Amino acid sequence: MNGQNFQPIRLIDYRPPEFLIDELLLTFRLKQRGTLVQASSMIRRNPSADRRNGPLRLCGEQLQLVELRLDDRRISLQDVCVTDWELIIENVPDVFKLQITTRVDPEDNTALSGLYRSSAIYCTQCEAEGFRRITYFLDRPDVLARYTTRIEAPQEECPVLLANGNLVAAGEMDDGFHFAEWQDPFPKPSYLFALVAGDLVKIEDEFVTASGRRVTLQIYVHERNRNKCKHAMVSLKKAMRWDEQVYGREYDLDQYMIVAVDDFNMGAMENKGLNLFNAKYVLADPRSATDQDYLAIEGVIAHEYFHNWTGNRITCRDWFQLSLKEGLTVFRDQQFSADMNSAAVQRIEDVRLLRQFQFREDAGPMAHPVRPDQYLEINNFYTVTIYNKGAEVIRMLHTLLGPETFRRGMDLYFQRHDGQAVTCDDFVAALADAADRDLTRFKHWYVQAGTPRLTVTEQWDERHCTYVVTVAQATPATPGQPDKLPLHLPLLVGLLGSDGGDLAARVSCPYERRGNDLLLELKEVQQDFVFREVPEKPVLSFLRGFSAPVIVNPFQSREEAAFVMQHDSDLFNRWDAAFSLAEAVILECLAKLVAAETMELDPVYLEAIHYLVGHPTDDRSLTALALQLPAENHLLQALKQIDPVALHEARRFVKQELAGRLADGLLNLYHDNEPSATYRLTGDQVGRRSLRAVCLDYLVLLGEEQQDLLELCAHQYRQGGTMTEKIGALSALAQVPGALRDEIFDHFENQWRSDPLVMDKWFALQAASPAADTYDRVKKLLDHPAFSLKNPNKVRSLLGVFGQNHVHFHHESGRGYRLLADRICQLDPLNPQLAARLMQPFVTWRRYTKDRRQLMEQILQEIGGQAGISRDVYEIVSKSLA
Ligand code: ARG
Ligand code: ZN
User: Which residues form the Peptidase M1 alanyl aminopeptidase Ig-like fold domain (predicted)?
Assistant: First the structure.
């Protein structure tokens, strides 16, 4: 394999920086090729460094060094050492000024890290290590400097010039250039630097903070998108108000800017005062964006805004602490979305994502703790573990401490560490101090990878009216961590009586009550929880609200699960009961299929779903969620050896069977829930649209015999006034190849070919389709004029989604593997970060049937053998093969 010389970065090697930079003046003279960057820094030796006489070592990549001056004297470039990743200057004084001029070519920057151009806009992405692609610098988050940024650019091409902070000067220059100077009063690490220049329009609004300061809010987009920013602006104002009300945090600059760009590796970026967004998370109108898009925009806008306190004012000491800001900020944005919309729906969506993607990561060769201790390429660690398991860890602290104490802990954290770069330990220490609790064992969550499994056993003593729940925990071994410590976790539970009511208030037990729930704290490998004066044998409602990110081994009968599904006061657990029931039923069918027995639908399950269809709750989104079967990505985790085709067939059988048996009920649900003609983003309306989409998704499977059901789909597509309804119809139809499907997909393409975000949906629906012709279509779509390897949204919609299409990606011939692998090798030299993300479906290759295993292993070796392989892809390949 190539790339063996990449060196891992280790947490134990962390040392404070030898130098500090307090002040930085940046001047950009922008050109598509040959942008000149002058960086003038005030540098001094760090009094608390381990070493006080070493050379100055600055990070730098893909730079052309033009000139160097130390205390205004020019240094010959012969007297310094320049490597592919560093500039080393020997014998520097203790305090000095350094001026560096570098040259970069934004137009050729396809990696989308550093300074690049996207749809004629100059923009930057510096997290994690992009700033070193702009100038030589101490590009690490524990070096905080005050930035002044001067941008010079052709006025015609770039009427708008933006950087962090406040505008302090602007004016015209010679030869059609103009300039703007921005000053950011808050010291910040280089990863929060941002610059934007281009032809953009701005949408403006105002926010008055709790203490009465006026903040100007601006969203910058291309002229053609001017009318698609309203929802983002409303979301921003909601987020600002919420952070004041719930966390007592106010915004701290006079201006807050958001810029939407078309080419972006991630979702968005929290640069101080100047957020950069993937256009997907800003632009929306009902005609072109779905309800899901609207909700995602609200969540991401809030996420980036919340970073201002959790990430910017208090930042990370090093990148091992990434979850300090990401886990905490995801937790905050989840809380926000739960408050703005349906809390139960939000929780279900968050848990679905965690189970499908994080549990899968945690069980494979890329498993890592929330605070990793080693990496090759930090960009590979912007993971569901750091983000979403990290958020679960914060949520557990919130549950253990209770909301008031948690808030006091947060206040203490802000008070202690404002303006600092700190660690996850510092964060937990603030909470522990405020709560006056010992959280030592809890901290294992930060250092231990793997998803714990809980085993639950119940004992009912009728004579003494005593009920005992025994819970045992075990975390499986993960790479580099063969032995696991027990964790401290909160278990919220309820006891249901035979009438379905909560018994918790009536029983005697030493556990803290939280509303309807009891809080059990598991700290040992195994513990008994005893409840006395229990009037009858209860049905246990375990792990309410998914109070800990664990897998619970099934312990209830299907009848009990159906009971929880109907009666639990915890809406999350109602859904979860439906989900685990469906999981058990599908896996049972799969076992039959593999054993060549006839598959049958379990009558208990059928009855439970029948009841659900006949008695939908007021929160229609909840009913819609309960009707959806677990994704293949989730189901396969329970299998010893994965045969993706058999799994798909078993799941499809259950779906088809439900459709057939419940057709009348589903059709009634469909007709009873027509949304209003004018678009509104209320729970009621969103619920109607999603419930109808689920109904269609089942009903269309009966289309072969009942043509009118296909017509129902077509009718919704043609008459539906919103993108949500159109996508609902399209995604149902995508399952049934035929003339009608083709006609409608073609119609959609013709209508939307010039809207890239809508075309992403069109690509994704085809790449996700189980229909037999998917491989051929995807292959053809790679040459579609709207597709481009250079645009990450396109790559994710077509190739990323195809990699998650289990039947087709894992086709026994290996053609699916080949298709993806070829594109990864093509993409790696252009955008290694994105190429590495596409590797994900190969990572768990060892879990598949023998023939597939062999094919994937070969492919991994082939990718690993590429000349010039990036550190990003190399890390994924080598860890997968290890
Ligand atoms: N901090 C950003 C966010 O979560 C993510 C940016 C990461 N970008 C990257 N290239 N690794 O909001
Ligand atoms: Zn973030």
Answer: 450-553
Atom of ligand 1 minimally distant from the CA of 326: 4
Sheet with strand 195-198: strands edge to edge: 114-118, 121-125, 195-198, 160-163
Q: Is 326 in the pocket of ligand 1 (CB under 6 A)?
A: yes
Q: What are phi and psi of 480, to 5 degrees?
A: 80, -5
As to burial, measured by CB atoms within 10 angstroms (0-12 exposed, 13-18 middle, 19+ buried), residue 166 is: middle
Helices (H), 271-358: 291-306, 322-340, 343-353
Ligand 2 centroid to residue 236 C-alpha, Å = 15
What is the C-alpha separation between 715 and 712, in angstroms, rounded?
A: 5
Which ligand 1 atom is at minimum distance from the Cα of 304?
Answer: 12
Owner of token pair 């692609």: 133
Structural contact between residues 56 and 178, judged by C-beta atoms closer than 8 angstroms: no
In this prediction, residue 3 carries a pLDDT of 80
Which pLDDT does position 4 carry in this prediction? 80
**Per-residue pLDDT tens over the stretch 279-323:** 999 999 999 999 999 999 999 999 999 999 999 999 999 999 999
**Which residue owns the Cα nearest ligand 1 atom 12?**
269
Nearest to 294 by CA among 675, 686, 621: 686
CA 382 to centroid of ligand 2, rounded, Å: 9
Residue 396 alpha carbon to ligand 1 centre in Å: 24
DSSP 703: T
Tell which atom from ligand 1 comes closest to the C-alpha of 387: 4
As a residue count, the chain comes to 882
SS3 category, 678: coil
Do the Cβ atoms of 694 and 722 come closer than 8 Å?
no
Domains and CATH numbers, the chain: 1-199 (2.60.40.1730), 314-446 (1.10.390.10), 453-548 (2.60.40.1840), 553-705 (1.25.50.10)
Q: For the chain, how big is the Rg over CA atoms in Å?
A: 28
* DSSP-assigned letters across all residues of 361-382: HHTSTT---SS-SEES-GGGG-
- Calpha distance 378→396 (Å, rounded): 26
Q: Indicate if ipTM > 0.90.
A: yes
Cα 336 to Cα 302: distance, rounded to the nearest angstrom: 8
Which stretches of the chain score pLDDT less than 50?
none
Nearest protein Cα to ligand 1, atom 7: 127
- 448: Cβ below 6 Å to ligand 1? no
Q: What are the pLDDT digits (tens) for 601-626?
A: 999 999 999 999 999 989 999 999 99
Instruction: Give the CA-trace dihedral at 380, 323, 451, 848, to 10 degrees.
Output: -10
Q: Which residues are catalytic?
A: 304
Helices marked H in 723-830: 723-733, 739-752, 756-768, 774-781, 792-795, 801-803, 806-809, 815-827
Which residue in 530, 614, 651, 515 sits closest to 570, CA to CA? Answer: 515
Distance of CA 142 from the midpoint of ligand 1 (Å): 17
pLDDT at 1: 81
Closest residue by CA, ligand 1 atom 9 = 127
Q: What is the pTM of this model?
A: 0.99
Residue 144's closest CA among 192, 89, 92? 192
Q: Give the pairing of strands 539-541 and 489-496.
A: antiparallel
| Separation CA 41–CA 373 (nearest Å) | 31
Nearest to 209 by CA among 245, 250, 256: 250
Q: Yes or no: say if 767 and 805 are a contact pair by the CB < 8 Å rule.
A: yes
| 124 backbone dihedrals φ, ψ, rounded to 5° | -130, 155
Closest CA to 339 of 271, 267, 403, 252: 403
| Ligand 1 atom with the shortest distance to the CA of 265 | 10
Q: Is residue 397 in contact with ligand 1, taking CB distance under 6 Å? A: no
Q: Is 207 helix (H, G, I), strand (E, B) or coil?
A: strand
